[in-house]
UniProtKB/TrEMBL annotation, chain A:
UniProt key word Transcription regulation: no
Entry-linked CDD domains: S26_SPase_I
Main location per the UniProt record: mitochondrion
Catalytic residue list: 89, 138
Localization (cell): Mitochondrion inner membrane
Name this polypeptide is given: Mitochondrial inner membrane protease subunit 2
Keywords of this entry: Hydrolase, Membrane, Mitochondrion, Mitochondrion inner membrane, Protease, Transmembrane, Transmembrane helix
Cellular component annotations (GO), alphabetically ordered: mitochondrial inner membrane peptidase complex
Species this chain originates from: Aegilops tauschii subsp. strangulata
PANTHER family attached to this UniProt entry: MITOCHONDRIAL INNER MEMBRANE PROTEASE SUBUNIT 2
InterPro entries recorded: IMP2 (IPR037730), LexA/Signal_pep-like_sf (IPR036286), Pept_S26A_signal_pept_1 (IPR000223), Pept_S26A_signal_pept_1_Lys-AS (IPR019757), Peptidase_S26 (IPR019533)
Record family assignment: Belongs to the peptidase S26 family. IMP2 subfamily.
Automatic annotation (TrEMBL), chain B:
Alphabetical keyword list: Hydrolase, Membrane, Mitochondrion, Mitochondrion inner membrane
Protein name: Peptidase S26 domain-containing protein
Species of provenance: Aegilops tauschii subsp. strangulata
CDD domains: S26_SPase_I (cd06530)
Role summary: Catalyzes the removal of transit peptides required for the targeting of proteins from the mitochondrial matrix, across the inner membrane, into the inter-membrane space.
Classification of source organism: Eukaryota, Viridiplantae, Streptophyta, Embryophyta, Tracheophyta
């Protein structure tokens, strides 16, 4: 623990009004920066030290971490979140490796969930329709109400209201709407805007339309 | 030693008095207090968000689709946000979910079947007695309003993915005459 002793000009008279006022002002100044109570002892010394009990130190650390956690969860829910990519369905835009540390890490924004307004070619995060605990990342190909052509066959499909059609960039290794059909927009968790790891791939994730694909109408 | 400059005119004198009064206001203290109050308010709002999104929220359901369990308007319900995330939702529960037809709408319906269950439902309630039986696909649930004559539910939009469920309504706190838990009936 640390200790604060005030340095006062007139140490002989500790009750002098000047000493008292100096101590009060200095205590108020330090209190702005300290989470636990500041106490200045009226002792003559040439060093300044702060009083903090060991228990109140642990309590202040706990309070700061809870506050930080609450603010972090709020920001991650409403504004922007960080996600590590697992899976190869978006290669080469985003790649994953077996180790979570070396896979791509992306930034996803949540402001789009306010009005659910997306554009064709956005990369989105969404909950898997057959397992709500898994989150997928794919590109948005069809918006609600559009007619799209399936790449393999010449089928034309209409995307129902409130749903969207998603496909991965790496068509060979992507389990997407071609298997589970259009997904409700309510499953969407966010829109990927930037890649922030590895450093060689840092940059925006562009809204891109796959080549050789007929645009919907 | 600082030699004060004498003001040369009455307006200059008023100006220098004004500047001196401005300098006397404890700006740093006010800024410190304002930022600490602002930070406290931000922390409070974040705490409210975390609790109402992840622990316990409040819902004000409106509409006739869940009569007689829920009134058409004026009910206030406690929504449990922990249960859906942990998978503690089963048949008979009244849940809040994002509508598969418009994700900006939140609807309240009763769960009739979980994945793998067989659900038999009236196709055209009120006009005929015909029923149909479906098996709920993996990861989906079948939801129906208690008031089958006036409810837009899985009979129209099919089974919905479990990920759309946002909360389980367990307890009514208003109106006072009906305070208590929501019946969970099959």
């Amino acid at each position: 623990s640390l200790r604060l002793h005030g340095t006062e000009e007139d140490c002989s008279d500790r009750t002098s009004s000047q000493c008292i006022r100096f101590r009060a002002q200095f205590t108020a100044f330090l209190q702005c920066f300290c989470t636990s109570e500041v106490q200045i002892l009226p002792v003559c010394s040439d060093r300044i030290v702060l009083i903090m009990g060991a228990r109140s130190q642990l309590w202040s650390i706990a309070k700061m971490s809870v506050t930080g956690g609450v603010i972090g969860v709020t920001i991650s829910d409403r504004y922007v979140t960080v996600v590590a990519i697992k899976g190869h369905s978006m290669h080469p835009t985003m790649t994953a490796t077996d180790s979570a540390l070396r896979g791509d890490i992306v930034l996803a924004e949540k402001a789009c969930l306010d009005q659910y307004k997306f554009s064709r070619g956005d990369v989105i995060l969404f909950k898997c329709p057959s397992n709500h605990k898994e989150v997928f990342v794919k590109r948005l190909i069809g918006l609600p109400g559009e007619w799209i052509q399936l790449p393999a066959s010449s089928e034309i499909i209409k995307v129902p209201q409130g749903h969207c059609w998603v496909e991965g960039d790496n068509a060979a290794r992507s389990w997407d709407s071609r298997s589970f059909g259009p997904i409700p927009l309510g499953l969407i968790n966010g829109r990927v805007t930037h890649i922030i790891w590895p450093p060689s791939k840092i940059g925006r994730v562009e809204r891109k339309w796959p080549e050789d694909r007929i645009p919907p109408f | 030693k600082i030699i004060p400059i004498e003001p040369s005119s009455p307006s200059a004198a008023a100006m220098s008095r004004f500047v001196r009064r401005l300098a006397g206001i404890p700006w740093r203290q006010i800024a410190g207090e304002a930022s600490s109050v602002g930070l406290l308010m931000a922390q409070g709002l974040c705490a409210v968000h975390v609790v109402s999104e992840h622990v316990l929220g409040v819902a004000f359901p409106r509409g006739p689709s869940m009569l007689p369990a829920l009134n058409m308007a004026g009910d206030v319900l406690l929504t449990d946000k922990v249960s859906p995330r942990r998978g503690w939702v089963g048949p008979g529960d009244v849940v809040l979910l994002l509508s598969p037809e418009d994700p900006r709408k939140i609807v309240a319906k009763r769960v009739l079947g979980m994945e793998g269950d067989e659900v038999t439902y009236p196709v055209d309630a009120g006009n005929s007695d015909a029923t149909k039986t479906v098996v709920v696909p993996q990861g989906h649930i079948w939801v129906q309003g208690d008031n089958i004559y006036s409810s837009n539910d899985s009979r129209q939009f099919g089974p919905v993915p479990y990920g759309l469920v946002k909360g389980k309504m367990s307890y009514r706190i208003w109106p006072p005459s009906r305070i208590g838990s929501i019946d969970s009936k099959e």
